Amino acid sequence: MRIISGKLKGRRINPPKNLPVRPTTDMSKEALFNILNHHFNFSELTILDLFAGTGNISYEFASRGAESIVSVDGDYGCVNFIKKTAKEFDLNIVPFKADVFKFIEKHKTSYDIVFADPPYDFTQEQFEKIVTDILNLELISEDGMLIIEHSKFTKLEHLPHFSFEKSYGGSVFTFFEFEQEEIEDDEDESEYDEEDTWDREEE
């Protein structure tokens, strides 16, 4: 596993072979971060990495200077490896051992980027639940992005807030964003409600 860019560029990280993971390939990871380079300034980003596995994606964000990274996985071995690696390289990664679905339900913080790489054998319904839960619970900020990695056999483009998708070999990255028009409409409605309440109080 190789870090593509940033302060750890070229560094190889070797996780234990017994971890129950399927790391994102270097080719796919490089393509993903080339896309993100055109959308974000990494030094200002807050990141939530779900189904983090070995921490592959978290390390890449940390190497590029992301402000903070939270990594969540349900496997003790994965979380301990992320914790050990983050300490070794002095990376601002906070790992959590948790069931991802339960973590999503209870978490109240929003992030600039939420990345999720569930097991490819998850059902279509499980993938859809991840997307809808993250969006409905407002875990991404107004200008943020949700990225789901999945196989070509899973289809997510029909879900609300779908933006685009990119395929690399057998892997697909599907991107979700809140459109600016939706954000402006929400703000307008909020302003109207406040004015309406004020008028009623004056009466």
UniProtKB/TrEMBL annotation:
<dbReference type="InterPro" id="IPR002052">
    <property type="entry name" value="DNA_methylase_N6_adenine_CS"/>
</dbReference>
<feature type="region of interest" description="Disordered">
    <location>
        <begin position="180"/>
        <end position="203"/>
    </location>
</feature>
<dbReference type="GO" id="GO:0031167">
    <property type="term" value="P:rRNA methylation"/>
</dbReference>
<keyword id="KW-0489">Methyltransferase</keyword>
<protein>
    <submittedName>
        <fullName>Methyltransferase</fullName>
    </submittedName>
</protein>
<dbReference type="GO" id="GO:0003676">
    <property type="term" value="F:nucleic acid binding"/>
</dbReference>
<keyword id="KW-0808">Transferase</keyword>
<feature type="region of interest" description="Disordered">
    <location>
        <begin position="1"/>
        <end position="21"/>
    </location>
</feature>
<dbReference type="Pfam" id="PF03602">
    <property type="entry name" value="Cons_hypoth95"/>
</dbReference>
<dbReference type="InterPro" id="IPR004398">
    <property type="entry name" value="RNA_MeTrfase_RsmD"/>
</dbReference>
<dbReference type="InterPro" id="IPR029063">
    <property type="entry name" value="SAM-dependent_MTases_sf"/>
</dbReference>
<dbReference type="GO" id="GO:0008168">
    <property type="term" value="F:methyltransferase activity"/>
</dbReference>
